[in-house]
Design goal:
Chorismate Mutase Domain, subunit A; single chain; mainly alpha
Length: about 150
């Protein structure tokens, strides 16, 4: 019985995190730099007031408890994958915010020229694009994006 994650999973995760320009620990396109933690509850620099948790047992226990894994190796894979997902989420949020800004420019131009705020045929194109790329859940995602981008002018 194997105690760690399958070797193929580890190799795939290493390829995903090392070959991508915005991978954790690297700077590149789509990688945002923040002066502090991006998320609430994100680890921060230790202060003098915080206790030093260097005991291996405490670290292993908290890591496996945090991840739900039953082995240290699996907890390590999960932790690394979650860091990657967090970085992807940060990029997605940034892209959504950029999309909202571009949409506001389009709406402003359309309204100032005497047109309507929304273009339903264009929204149908966006819905179809997401549905074709992601299936039925893509439609819901596109609806949420369109809702976020409406009425910002």
């Amino acid at each position: 019985m194997a105690t760690g994650p399958p070797a193929a999973m580890v190799v795939l995760l290493e390829q995903l995190t090392s070959d991508f320009p915005g991978a954790p620990g690297r700077q590149g396109p789509g990688r945002l730099c923040f002066s502090g933690p991006c998320r609430s509850g994100a680890p921060s620099e230790p202060s003098d007031e915080e206790p030093d948790m260097t005991a291996t047992a405490a670290t292993e226990q908290s890591t496996t408890e945090r991840t739900g894994a039953r082995t240290e190796d699996a907890a390590g894979v999960i932790t690394g994958a979650r860091e990657r997902i967090d970085a992807l989420d940060d990029r997605i949020i940034g892209l959504v915010q950029e999309r909202m800004a571009v949409s506001a420019v389009i709406q402003e131009a359309r309204i100032s020229s005497g047109g309507s705020r929304m273009n339903l045929s264009r929204e149908m194109e966006v819905l179809a694009h997401y549905r074709e790329a992601l299936g039925k859940p893509g439609t819901s995602l596109a609806m949420t994006l369109l809702e976020l981008c409406r009425g910002r002018v």
